[in-house]
Amino acid sequence: MKHLKKMLCGSLIAFGTLAQQASAATFVGDRTDFRDETIYFAMTTRFYDGDPNNNVYCWDGVLNVNDPEWRGDFAGLIKKLDYIKALGFTAVWITPIVENGSGLDYHGYHAMDFSKIDHRYVSKESTDADADVAFQTLIDEVHKRDMKLILDIVLQHTGNFGEAKLCRMFQKDYTQDLGDINASMIVVPQSEGGQLPEDYPAMKPGDQYATRLAMMKNSDFTNRDIHNYWHHKAWFDWDDPSRWWGQIAGDCVDLNTEHPAVAEYLVECYSRFIKMGVDGFRIDTAGHIPRLSFNNNFLPQLMEAANSAEAKAKRGDTPFFMYGEVCARSMEVIYRGENYNCSPCYYTWKESKNYPWDYDPTSWDSVVAIPTPTEGSHDYFTVQGHTNWESVLQSGIDDLGHADAILRKSDNALLNGNEYHTPDYSDYSGMSVIDFAMHWNFKSASGAFGVHGQDNLYNDATYNVVYVDSHDYAPDSNYRFEGTQDTWAENLSLMFTFRGIPCLYYGSEVEFQKGKPIDKGAVEALKDTGRAYFGGYIEGDLTVTDFAEYSSATGNIASTLTYPLARHIQRLNKIRAAVPALRKGQYSTDGCSGSMSFKRRYVDDNTDSYVLVTISGSSTFTGILNGTYVDAITGDTKTVTDGTLTATCSGKGNLRVYVLNTSKTPAPGKVGEDGKYLYGTASVDQPWTEWPDETMPEETWTVKPSGGGSGGTVEEPEEPIEPAIEDGEQAIFFENTSDWGGYIYAWIWNDDGNYTGGNWPGQVLTYLGNKIWKWTYTGTETIPDDAVIIFSNGSDQVPGRDQGGFDFVNGGYYTQDGYLKTIEPETTSPRVSMSPNGGDFIESVTVTLKANSVTTSATYKVGNASEVSFTGTTTVTIGEDMEVGESVTISWTATDGTATTNGKATFTKVEKPAGITIYADNSEVQWSPLKIHHFDVDASTWPGVDMLKVAENIYTYTVPDGTRGVVFNNGQGNGSNQTEDYTNLTNNHLYLIKPNGSNKATVEDKGVYGGASIDDLYVNDLYAGIEISLVPGGILVSASVDGMVHISTISGQTRSIAVTPGQTLIDGLEGFYIVNGQKLFVK
User: Fold this and answer.
1) How far apart are CA 199 and CA 213, in angstroms?
2) Cα–chain-centroid distance for residue 962?
3) Which of 65, 552, 598, 915 has the most CB atoms in a 10 Å sphere around its CB?
4) Taking each helix axis from N to C terminus, what angle separates 260-276 and 299-306, rounded to the nearest 10 degrees?
5) Could you report the per-residue pLDDT of 297-339, keeping only the tens digit for each?
6) Which residue positions does the secretion signal occupy (predicted)?
7) Which residues are CB-neighbours of 890 under 8 A, at least 6 positions away?
8) 1039: Cβ contacts below 8 Å, ≥ 6 apart
9) Where are the alpha helices (DSSP H) in 579-712?
10) Are strands 501-505 and 39-42 parallel, antiparallel or unpaired?
């Protein structure tokens, strides 16, 4: 691979030349390591469909209609490499490619044969050799464009359908319908050299799953995995070393990564791809593998393969790069402030001690490891029977907690004043990590920037891979990034200038699927998640001449590339390429006055690059190098003689990037054109037009199979979520111990109504993994103590019919047998939550500040006003004395007597929007919350926004002028949890939401709303003179006039009864009914 340079003439360049614009994304300095790259993460099957003839459905994807899960392919990646290069990215990360087997395996993380490439990326007719050729072609096409390819690999687990060498159970028949488990997954019984019993096909699905699992994990308490290729522990804790050998999900069966034979097999399989020319590995679920196993088993062998002459020649002699996913859903660098050895930074180091290690693969054959029926999560302390397990256990004990004595520290990422120093990599493990602390804090750039104070805990934080969201998570969330566009822009400005390697998840350049759940497994159609098919957005052609430089774009791809965030990314890529210090520089914040400002420097034999950066605000830099600086954003030139430079900057996401002109590395001048977020004096609205064609087209030619079955499992999330509840959250958990199929619903109610909204069976719970589901209340009131719960899957239910419900306990953890325990709120550090947490408001806004339970005292301050102390919860109203366009910041501090934390949010007063004011009557469905999603003009992000309650059961919201339609919903969506699209909108009209059984609710226009309560409107007119009262087993109607009684069941069945003056008893009723607009519970 050639190295790209900008050919300049060193100190001979005149100052007049310094301010000229650098062309394209031309690289200054050699691309010597992976910090020179920026990464675009494409989920292959969901990115672009290059060969429509190879599309395949998964057998568990029942909700995916006209959208085969296996839709994108190698051909699609090749066709759209130019698009990725046009954005300015130099590397592509793709999901795993080995042969998979599970009910939803489109993502590639459920391996059943590590030694071959899944033919579904190529064609049904492909041979193994054809698949190899197709992947080699992809690698070669990437390299042809001076780009690099990162392959996602899995070392920690297989799927639950065995593995071809380690435990053969099935042979995949690619000639059959791959969406039909019975047709395509051919059982290999013991009589034919496999591991499954002869009667396996006749078993029930649940028994089939248990049989498969027992072959790998000895889960039936019989020694079946005689070579110990898998771990056999049944339980683990997310927050301690037991996570190293516990099964994280039903579809992720954990391999014995301490076994030399397992390691050698995996290394052999993946070394093949290294020698084909892949440039790096992203290692999945690395945090569930002991670091000792990486340092002894995997990393040395993989690097040996990467340093082979064959592999280096294929890569163009560039260094091979590995980074691990050490999942840490935590805002702290030390995972939740607790265990160092569960933290990403821990994995960047070699061992600090020598532990015994047995490399003889046959030594495991004498070990009998059978789980006990009563073992608990902390039974990892009983792991024994092999040197390697005992060494891992000892290392886990040695590095437990976070005492300063066990923390390894480095200054590799940090400047010494202004001086760059040679990094010391003698203790580097060879694997860098995804920066989960930044990731989890990226709700704001300032939050993400705030974690740099512990960068010395990484061997070298400049190698951290940094992203905002991914195929698994968003910042402290399971939804694709929901922040405003300028928040996205600010996050990107930090990512591309601060330490670390920037990475972007596909579609984020156009805020694709903003606010949608990232992954809901089988309970949500992929088109409604963060893993939707992106191909429609990039249909069209273009000509690419360099990174972030293209012409002749047509169709939807032209609109995508000119979207404001996409333009922002292109310019950031150009700037980063032009300044080596932004790519590989050590950094310091000393002498940098801005809230997000820093200096960086990188030096080698041919380079001396020094830069000053400030984000979203001005900064004065003191104690800096003297010389001539040129801003890469504006071209402004400043000559420094006293070690001080002031950079003036305003606008969220805007930058000033003052580059020192040195003899080795001259400043590039202004790089790129001004736009919406990067500019000199004023934001520039660059041309953008809506996509001319369908962005999310259906695929109608692939036949969805009707056969098959799930093999007895529900699709597990890639990284199951442990049950947890936050301070102030109202939530419950349900463990599906009886293995019900389908979704789990909760119906929570008392005599005053139900808290799950809508019709029976209530709201779908969110699946966390490992049979555990969670329901979170989205309403505002506190659920009372007399509320009860029914759990069901739409047919089975607990408690049984006519048996009432389980008592509601906030944080309660239930099984089919009832309440088991309470999950207590996480209270790791003092915090204050604000609602709303910043943003725009009209006229005034009341902000609620709530201190969590460990906070002993807290303060808040509005703007420059005096601090106000409070405990518990308080409110403050702002805005009445503010002008439109004016902003104010509310800041807070919280302490528990030992630790102190702080935060802030900015609120901006805006004009009241013109639009259509509509009212909704919630009396019949009783949804909580009541949300409205409006579309076409300034469309809201599903499920929309909360409507404002103005009277009992009456809510209002003003939608933008030109709005085509709305959908009312309760935040859940699907079926009876939302209305049909309603498009006949009239200003100031009231719309009644009417239940419609299990179908979408209907909307009825009730005419102009006059501002009265519901009792003064049509309900009283319709039912005047009719009173309803409850009697045992029925209702008593007292009428003074002729009239009608309308009775609706919670399933939507309706009955109308004519009544005459006097009393009428209607009996034989039991349960919930809506009677003349009133919701009643008949006992």
Assistant:
1) 16
2) 33
3) 598
4) 30
5) 999 999 999 999 999 999 999 999 999 999 999 899 999 889 9
6) 1-24
7) 834, 847, 849, 860, 861, 862, 876, 878, 904, 905, 907
8) 1025, 1026, 1027, 1059, 1060, 1061, 1062, 1063, 1064
9) 580-584
10) parallel
Q: Round to whole Å and give the CA distance between 736 and 969.
A: 27
- 48-58 pLDDT, tens digit per residue, is 999 999 999 99
CA distance 486 to 346: 34
Give, in degrees to the nearest 5, the angle at Cα 345 between 341 and 346.
Answer: 35
- Ordered DSSP codes for 941-985: PTT-EEPEEEETTEEEEEEETT--EEEEE-SS-SGGGBBPPB---
Give CA–CA dist 438/462, Å, rounded.
Answer: 13
- Per-residue model confidence as pLDDT tens digits over 704-724: 775 444 444 456 676 778 898
Residues near 673 by beta carbon (within 8 Å), at least 6 away in sequence = 571, 684, 686
CA pair distance 487, 903, nearest whole angstrom = 16
pTM for the model stands at 0.70
Ordered DSSP codes for 813-858: EEETTEEEEE-PPB-SS--EEEES-SEEEES-EEEEEEE-TT-SEE
- Please report where in the chains the tokens 């891992």 appear, as a residue: 392
User: Tokens representing 967?
Assistant: 């959908």
Q: In b/e form, how buried is each residue of 598-626, taking b as 16+ CB within 10 angstroms?
A: bbbbbbbeebbbbbbbbbbbebebeebbe
Q: What SS3 state is found at 871?
A: coil
Read off the amino acid at residue 657: V
Is the peptide bond between 319 and the residue preceding it cis, with omega within 30 degrees of 0?
no
Q: How is residue 246 annotated by DSSP?
A: B
The count of residues in the chain is 1083
Q: Which amino acid is at 44?
A: T
Structure tokens that stand for 1067 in this block: 């009996």
| Plot region of 974 (φ>0 → left; ψ -120 to 50 → alpha; else → beta) | left
Pairing of strands 965-969, 931-935: antiparallel
Q: What is the pLDDT of residues 993-1043, one digit of tens each?
A: 998 877 788 999 988 876 543 333 333 344 567 788 777 667 888 887 777
* Block residue for tokens 């719309």: 991
Q: How far apart are CA 165 and CA 1024, in angstroms?
A: 77
- Quickly count: other Cβ atoms within 10 Å of residue 484's Cβ: 15
- Give the list of residues 6+ apart from residue 172 with CB closer than 8 angstroms, or none: 99, 101, 112, 113, 178, 184, 185, 186
User: How far is residue 789 CA from its own chain's centroid?
Assistant: 30
Q: How far apart are CA 1027 and CA 430, in angstroms?
A: 77
Residues 6+ apart with CB under 8 A from 723: 733, 768, 772, 774, 813, 823
